[in-house]
Design goal:
Elements: H1 2-31, E1 37-39, E2 49-52, E3 62-64, E4 78-84, H2 93-103, E5 104-110, H3 117-120, E6 128-130, E7 136-137, E8 143-145, H4 149-156
Parallel strand pairs: 1-2, 1-4, 2-3, 4-5
Antiparallel strand pairs: 5-7, 6-8
Length: 162
């Protein structure tokens, strides 16, 4: 019974910060304004163009992106760009961020903070761990390659939620 209590306590200690980070804090950022471009939108409507590499849901003004390093938009086409929970997935975050800066005047990055351990250490999906306690950023913070992620993703593939 003691082990069950410890296991449930550990689960709650990991689950609660992830829910706060991913569900509540991300939703608050998303709803703060209408975003000109909501890149890698998943199932969320940013109020402007919603774009992703896969259609996860029916969203207004949705556009498929074939290559994240060559977005199909004009230079500074958008006043605001929201890029939520994406930079940690890509192979070359600096190149992707440069492309976001090319198409948007203001770029907001939403990243898993270190205190959201279940997201920060997700080797099935993420390639990088960002060394930050903040959720929202104007430019990428320092990062480290996530140990074992490349090997795990080479064997199993990087999981995409469709």
């Amino acid at each position: 019974m003691l082990y069950l209590g410890i296991a449930l306590g550990l689960f709650a200690a990991l689950w609660a910060p992830h829910q706060i980070s991913y569900r509540f804090m991300k939703a608050r950022i998303l709803k703060r304004q209408a975003w000109g471009l909501n890149i890698c939108c998943g199932r969320t409507d940013g109020g402007g163009v919603n774009a992703d590499i896969v259609r996860h849901a029916e969203l207004p003004r949705f556009q498929i992106v074939e290559d994240i390093y060559r977005l199909p938009f004009a230079d500074l086409e958008f006043d605001s760009v929201l890029c939520s929970h994406t930079l940690e997935h890509v192979e070359d975050p600096d190149r992707f961020f440069a492309e976001l800066r090319r198409v948007g005047r203001q770029v907001v990055l939403v990243l898993p903070p270190l205190w959201d351990i279940t997201a920060a250490l997700n080797i099935l999906e993420h390639r990088w761990i960002y060394l930050t306690l903040k959720k929202e950023h104007a430019r990428p913070p320092r990062r480290l390659r996530l140990p074992l992620a490349r090997t795990v993703q080479r064997i199993f593939g990087q999981r995409l939620h469709s």
